[in-house]
């Protein structure tokens, strides 16, 4: 009966190593896939996330999961999250974990190079602009893919406070921009 609750030190170490490795691989894959990977999920995206969770969970818990290995994997994941949060305070690591915001629309013009680089489709951008109540691109001063993967919209009808755009790397009319 106690076999389902306990584990050996060797198995505990295997759980920690497997959990750390699968967590880091997952972070790299999400980073390579782009900022929007886990923000808004379509049905296929949701299926993929569920499968990823099952794979990560099964890998972390090894062949014969027990209560102890589950607790060890959970604690390891939480410690990894905390460690990366602390490491994220260093600018190089933070930039890798959380890419800089990307301007997708500026002064009513689509920035096609930025859209392509951020892997944001025109359909995704149109949807987010509609959700923001935008009826015309001319209404948009800037649409920005934020560090979280969300798209924020600043309207042209109102002056934009410089403080709000201080972290954006933009030119007045960048190359790769054009009317829609």
Description:
A five-stranded antiparallel sheet has the order 4-3-1-2-5. β1 and β2 form a beta hairpin. Helices cover 49% and strands 12% of the residues. The termini are far apart. It has helices at residues 9-33, 43-61, 67-87, 91-97, 112-117, 122-131; strands at 102-106, 109-111, 140-145, 151-155, 177-178. The chain is elongated. The protein is built from six helices and five strands; from the N terminus they run ααααββααβββ. With 180 residues, it is α+β, with helices and mostly antiparallel strands.
Features:
elongated, 180 residues, five-stranded antiparallel beta sheet, single chain, alpha+beta
Total helices: the number is 6
Tell me about the largest β-sheet.
Answer: 5 strands, antiparallel
Beta-strand percentage range: 5-15%
Low-confidence stretches: 173-177
Shape: elongated
Number of strands: 5
Rounded to an integer in angstroms, the radius of gyration calculated over CA atoms is 21 Å
Mean pLDDT over all positions: 85
Percent of residues in helices comes to 40-55%
Task: Give the N-terminus to C-terminus distance in angstroms.
Answer: 67 Å
Class from helix and strand fractions:
alpha+beta
Strand order in the sheet with the most strands? 4-3-1-2-5
N-to-C SSE string, H for helix and E for strand: HHHHEEHHEEE
């Amino acid at each position: 009966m106690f076999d389902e609750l306990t584990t050996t030190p060797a198995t505990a170490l295997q759980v920690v190593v497997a959990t750390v490795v699968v967590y880091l691989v997952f972070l790299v894959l999400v980073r390579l896939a782009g900022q929007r990977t886990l923000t808004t999920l379509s049905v296929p995206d949701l299926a993929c996330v569920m499968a990823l969770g099952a794979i990560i969970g099964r890998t972390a818990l090894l062949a014969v999961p027990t209560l102890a290995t589950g607790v060890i994997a959970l604690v390891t994941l939480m410690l990894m999250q905390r460690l990366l949060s602390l490491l994220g305070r260093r600018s190089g690591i933070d930039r890798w974990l959380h890419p800089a915001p990307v301007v997708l629309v500026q002064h009513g013009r689509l920035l096609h190079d930025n859209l392509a680089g951020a892997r944001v489709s025109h359909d995704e951008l149109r949807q987010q602009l509609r959700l923001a109540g935008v009826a015309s691109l001319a209404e948009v001063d800037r649409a920005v893919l934020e560090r979280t993967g969300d798209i924020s919209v600043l309207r042209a009808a109102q002056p934009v406070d410089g403080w709000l755009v201080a972290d954006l790397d933009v030119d007045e009319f960048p190359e790769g921009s054009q009317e829609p």
